[in-house]
């Protein structure tokens, strides 16, 4: 969702055997950049539901969110202010099937290796590396930080 130049985004670290799933994007503004499964929150959408939806759309995997590393604020390559809500999720169903043509590759990377990747190969490298540091140091917050949307 974009409002007044501010973009609200969710992203998810899916961790298996001490490796995190990364996807390679093929969108006009970020060709061949590695990122966590992520995307914009839709108007009126619950943040937690948005995170699960984006993972499913981009990877074919169903996840259950377990915790959050926090909220990140940065200026994107398209000069938008981005507020990113990052979560950790566990695979509960599905199989890896990339959303082509927007997602062209995926790989499991040991978490410490994220810090060593060339910044030019990452989408918003500073933020990805902040998240990797949080994952490594296990600096997590409970999901109760995000209140479920009340339906009226």
Automatic annotation (TrEMBL):
Hydrolase among keywords: yes
Transmembrane segments: none
UniProt-recorded Gene Ontology molecular function terms: hydrolase activity
Positions of the Nudix hydrolase domain: 5-137
Keywords: Hydrolase
Superkingdom field: Bacteria
PROSITE patterns the UniProt entry points to: NUDIX, NUDIX_BOX
Family: Belongs to the Nudix hydrolase family.
Protein name: NUDIX hydrolase
Source organism per UniProt: Viridibacillus soli
Phylogenetic lineage: Bacteria, Bacillati, Bacillota, Bacilli, Bacillales
């Amino acid at each position: 969702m974009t409002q007044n130049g501010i973009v609200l985004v969710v992203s998810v670290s899916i961790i298996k055997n001490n490796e995190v799933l990364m996807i390679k994007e093929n969108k006009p503004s970020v060709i061949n950049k590695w990122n966590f499964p992520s995307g914009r929150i839709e108007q009126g959408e619950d943040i937690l539901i948005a995170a699960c939806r984006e993972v499913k759309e981009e990877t074919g995997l169903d996840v259950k969110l377990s915790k959050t590393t926090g909220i990140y604020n940065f200026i994107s390559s398209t000069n938008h202010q981005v507020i990113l809500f990052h979560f950790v999720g566990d695979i509960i169903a599905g199989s890896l099937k990339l959303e082509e043509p927007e997602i062209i590759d995926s790989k499991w990377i040991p978490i410490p290796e994220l810090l060593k990747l060339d910044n030019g190969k990452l989408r918003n490298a500073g933020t990805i590396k902040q998240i990797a540091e949080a994952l490594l140091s296990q600096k997590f917050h409970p999901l109760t930080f995000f209140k479920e949307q009340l339906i009226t």
